[in-house]
């Protein structure tokens, strides 16, 4: 599965778009390093 991750430098969340073009908004403190494994 492909994920497109958008990081907003001046914000407290990132956006993750999956291959069905569903955008998931995730707060930084919920993911930390999980997305960058």
Descriptive overview:
With 37 residues, the chain is mainly β. It has one helix at 28-31; strands at residues 4-7, 13-17, 23-27. The two termini are 14 Å apart. The model has no long low-confidence stretch (mean pLDDT 71).
Please summarize what this structure is.
The protein is mainly beta and 37 residues long. Helix content is 11%, strand content 38%.
Counting structural domains, the number is 1
Count, helices: 1
Termini separation comes to 14 Å
The fraction of residues assigned to DSSP E strands is: 35-45%
Helix content: 10-25%
Uncertain segments are none
Mean pLDDT: 71
Largest sheet: 3 strands, antiparallel
This entry's quaternary arrangement is: single chain
Number of strands: 3
Class derived from helix and strand content? mainly beta
Largest beta sheet: what is the strand line-up?
Answer: 1-2-3
Describe the protein's topology.
Blueprint: E1 4-7, E2 13-17, E3 23-27, H1 28-31
Antiparallel strand pairs: 1-2, 2-3
Features of the shown structure:
single chain; 37 residues; mainly beta; 3-stranded antiparallel β-sheet; 11% helix; elongated
């Amino acid at each position: 599965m492909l994920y497109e991750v958008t990081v907003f430098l001046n914000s407290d969340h990132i956006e993750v778009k999956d291959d069905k073009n569903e955008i998931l908004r995730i707060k930084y403190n919920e993911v930390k390093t999980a997305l960058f494994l």
